[in-house]
Amino acid sequence: MKKMFFLSAMFICSIAVCLAATVVSLNGSWYGTLKTDDGTEYPLQYNFKVDGDKLTGTAKGPHGDLPILDGKVNGNDFSFSVTLEKMYLEHSGKIYPDSISLNIEAGDIKAHTVLKRGDN
User: Fold this and answer.
1) Which of 30, 79, 94, 107 is the most exposed place for a label (fewest CB within 10 A)?
2) How many CA atoms lie within 13 A of 10 on its CB side?
3) Is residue 3 in a domain?
4) Which pTM does this prediction carry?
5) What is the DSSP letter of 97?
6) Please, are residues 81 and 89 in contact by the beta-carbon 8 Å criterion?
């Protein structure tokens, strides 16, 4: 019975370690472009800092640096918002080992972009 309990505990610990290893760090600089319907491309830069489940940092675009507000992290999923000229831009994304899939919404306007990690 003790041997079965020990083996079960070891198996559960192994799974926990594997799951923890799959969470990729969001910290650092991430770069991409936002393409509008008319084909115009705007460079984007996000500087993220994660502390537990809290996400802070800045979003840099054509209008300068904007602070990240209401940032949350849940495993590989995250969300935050920025305010640009009285417009509230909701961001939600998923981090992968080499990229971030990011959705941006402002009212009825929706956009998607992919970010790549930059130099820290």
Assistant:
1) 107
2) 6
3) no
4) 0.76
5) S
6) yes
